[in-house]
Specification:
Layout (H helix, E strand, L loop, with lengths): L27 H19 L5 E8 L6 E10 L2 E8 L9 H15 L4 E7 L4 H6 L3 E8 L4 E9 L9 H4 L12
Parallel strand pairs: 3-4
Antiparallel strand pairs: 1-2, 2-3, 4-6, 5-6
Length: 179
């Protein structure tokens, strides 16, 4: 007579009762709770505590108000470009390439080896290709025929005027206020 399976499944564990809230307006403090908790988890797993925001801001020379620029972050050897915008009247002047170069150079100075971003087919994939970025892939989005284009760039050597000590991660801060 064959031995029958006598494994008894564990009784189901009661799920903790939680309130779930779907919102299009999260409170910054609530977003910070999630971001900070994930950062702590990553630090515990990797032993690396290097997450920092990175921005190159374009200020109006008369009002000193921000009118465009780039925001992102560096973490675990990667530079993430989150947002990049220039008003139409500043496009095509080389300013965008300079902003991106400065951000990439700062990421290198922080020890980043690779950069990642996504753009949309009607935004700037051609601009990024001209700056040495490569397409990783695309995901269709709305409107029909449009895609989010995921791109990457190897950050092997500084392209600007960061001295060798800074490229090694000396902690020297660049002054981007003149651009």
């Amino acid at each position: 007579m064959p031995v029958s399976d006598t494994t008894v499944p564990a009784p189901p564990r009661p799920e903790p009762r939680m309130d779930l809230v779907v919102t299009d307006a999260p409170v910054p403090a609530d977003t910070a709770v999630i971001s900070d908790a994930l950062d702590r988890f990553n630090i515990e797993k990797t032993g690396v505590d290097d997450r920092r925001p990175l921005a190159v801001l374009v200020r109006d020379p008369g009002t000193h108000r921000v009118i465009g620029g780039l925001t992102g972050r560096t973490s675990l050897g990667l530079f993430f470009v989150d947002l990049f915008f220039l008003p139409p009247e500043l496009r095509g002047s080389g300013l965008g390439a300079e902003i991106l170069r400065r951000a990439e150079d700062e990421a290198r100075a922080r020890g980043c080896l690779t950069a990642v971003l996504y753009t949309i087919t009607f935004q700037a994939p051609g601009f990024y290709r001209k700056q040495g970025w490569k397409r990783l892939g695309e995901v269709p989005c709305d409107p029909p025929g449009t895609s989010r284009v995921f791109m990457t760039k190897e950050l092997t050597a500084p392209t600007g005027n960061i001295d060798a000590g800074c490229a090694a991660g000396c902690g020297h801060e660049q002054d981007f206020s003149d651009g």
